[in-house]
Every structure is written in C-alpha cells, then in structure tokens.
Amino acid sequence: MEIQKPLYPMRINKYLALKGHSTRRGADELIEKGQVFINGKQAVLGDKVSESDLVKVSFRGKQKPYMYIAYNKPRGIVTHSAQKGEKEIKNVFALKDVYPIGRLDKDSHGLIILTNDGRITERLLGPKYFHEKEYIVTTKNDLRSNFKEKMEAGVQIEAEKTAPCKVQILDERKFKVILTEGKKHQIRRMCSALFQEVDDLKRIRIMNIKLDSLSEGAHRNIEGEELKKFLGDLGMN
After folding, report:
1. Lower CB density within 10 Å: C or N end of the chain?
2. Does the annotation count 171 as an active-site position?
3. Structural domains of the chain in order of their starting residue, each with its CATH number
C-alpha cells in the first residue's frame, strides 16, 4: 500500500509529532519554552510550516530512545482524559514517558500500543491510512442470520456509512471483525444499528502486533522483526 505524503502547510505541533520530536501536546510545551525555531525564528503556538521550511528543536539534555510497547488494557481503565473517579492508563501503567496511540473504550479491553514516538500517531490513525485492527466481540443476543452480510457491507450510522469490513462468525453470540477505520465507539454503534447489543469487546491485533497470550494488565516490548515490519508498514523505515 502506498503511503500518502503529509499535506503542507501544517501546524508546527503536528509537524514535530510527525518527525518524532514529541506528541502534539509535548510539541506545544517545547514551543512555549522557546525551544522550536522555524527558519531561524522562534516559533509560536499556531505557526504553520511548509515542506521547504527549516525547523530546528533545541532539546535540553539527551533525547530519549524510542519505546514501543504492547499493553493488554483491562476493562474499566480509561485511555485518555479520565473524569473524576476514573482510572487512566498513565496512572496505572508502570512505565513513564510513553502514551497510548488511539483509544479503547473504558468498557472494552485488549491491545493498545504505547510509545514515545510521535511520528506514529498520524500514520496509524489518520483517516487517509487504512491499517487493520482486529477484535473479538460477544453480543448479549443471538446474531441474526444476515448479520455477517450486513456488517461486512458497511453500516449506516447517523449521517455516515462505515467502510466495508471482514467478519467471521465464531458462534451464536460471538464474532471476529477486522476494521480499517476507527470511528468513535464504531463496533458498538454498528452492532446497535443491526439490533445487536455488545456484551464484551476485545481488541486482539493492530496491524502485525498481536495480543496473543499477553495477560490482562501486562505489557511487552515490541522489538526485532516485529517492530521492523510495524514501522515499515507505516512507511517509517
């Protein structure tokens, strides 16, 4: 699959994330500290850069090596922006300086990738990219006879229709689904539109990264050939 080039001009924080300097939030902090320069001029929040612009970041201290981690998120843990009384990954995960890429609903569980490599975010989640994510879903009621056909064709959710997907029926109330997009609460909303209520939702794969036997709440490093393929498929090798 051909990786599309980033569109310029783009905001400086997005540019820094794509180049792996930090997350977008981290980029804003670098800008506020006066550590970012565009064509020799100190950048300010909201600046945009073209492809020909020279961007320099003046880091204080040595830049930390990139880390890529597969984490089996338990139910009840929030990926981002926890509200009062909720637990967030950053509060329960042992390692610091990494952040989750994308989201996994509070009531869902399974694989999520944690990293300090800001380049990954857009390449993995951007709407112009189509990377597979695989889930096992259990419903509260028996699957309808035409569920697989309807689901695979794409489901109308309010004003938009989801992209075609792949479905494998496992039993009367369980199926696997492979998506190449990531709309908010997508699988739950698709099921609801087809008169099926989700009882359990578990993500087991993101591209070539598999959950396999990783225990709930545990994590492992993504490295070696697995990491090489992952980054290569994102166009980063």
Report:
1. N
2. no
3. 10-57 (3.10.290.10), 68-126+211-233 (3.30.70.580), 133-206 (3.30.70.1560)
